[in-house]
Specification:
The protein has 451 residues and is an all-alpha fold. The chain has 20 helices and no strands. The N and C termini lie far apart (90 Å).
Amino acid sequence: MKSDNTQVQTMQWASLISDERLGLEHYRDENRGGVRSEFERDYDRLIFSSPFRRLQNKTQVFPLPDSIFVHNRLTHSLEVACVGRSLSGEVASRLLPRYQGEPWADKLNAIGEIVAAACLAHDLGNPPFGHSGEKTIGAYFAEGGGRVLREHFTPEQWSDLVHFEGNANSLRALVHQFNGRRPGGFAMTYSTLAAIVKYPYSSRHAADNGKFGFFTSEREIFERIASHLGLLRVDTERYCRHPLVYLVEAADDICYQVMDIEDGHKLKIITTDETLSLLLAFFDEKRRAHMREVMNRVTDPNEKVVYLRSCVVGLLVRECADTFAAHERDILAGRFEGTLIDHISPRAMAGYTACSELARQRLYRASYVVDVDLAGNRIINLLLEKLIEAVMHPERNYSQLLLTKFPQQYDINAPTLFEKVQAVLDHISAMTDVYALNLYRRLDGISIPMV
């Protein structure tokens, strides 16, 4: 029998972990000093940025009530970063013994710093009103008033618009050189940027779920990053994920699902008994008995839920770390299928699926959640209509008044219509829920400033 000597091509940690900065490739300050790594600088740069602060007034899932605190995009991103750092530490502890003696092995200690920064940035491009706002923008071009503009764009540009995607917009928010800003946008490290691109291909390859990783305008930048880091190509237009994407994705999945259940309990959509039962189901009977013993020491139902939630997060972190370590070769070779959550143990998967199903049936379809989705749809549609009309016809009196409201960083005088429309989308995506609502009221004549 003839032996198969074909070697599987794989990505290499030595090149995957790089502190090269976008826009500053030819500049390096060796005398900067300090104890922070370049990846820690990424994290700090995001924390102190205006786009990150604006996430505090953007809907995660539930509308932000007056009396009960639930998660918004900011608190979600901070929690994802915490879980991502813990998950990465677990992974690094499993990988380091494998590569002991390799000259680049110390680079693995940076995994937690890279993933934490990427977790902070993963929702930076999401528009107001949660995922509903994201869908509304794409629908405006696919089935709304924006359909009449199709003839003005190339097929690739039109695909970007009708599939508008928060993930791709997050990359744009980080790398685009807005007016008055430096080259490279945030000038983040290549590894941090690659770690947020869950779908490393353009909108032309968006599947039924409409997901993709970068707009036409950022294609060259992503390809440069991918080439530098040694990401494998699937074909001429698609790449394999950077391995750390799986850790960012898992941290997001864990927080999204488990924290939504906690919020549902705080909002009294889910009873305490239901919530405790859901979270206890992740564990075997022996562990459950111990947990009940611990919970008997407190009477506050919220504290009981917090305790169980922390246990569930810890369990999922360990299981996802085990999965990553067990499948590292397939991940580096671009052969790993699904998410890390897809490969956790049957008991944990059953618990996760039960939480997901309950959230889908009773949380995401709650009456006031749908009401906000409907309102957000109307608000964003009107903003798109008015702002796109203004950039297309700047000579009109109303347009001239409205264009004075645009922040200077957005290039409404760009040479092409696609770039002008992107400036509108950049502006709307950056808005908080409250800002979008107030602007809608002014443009629709519902509210006028006091004279």
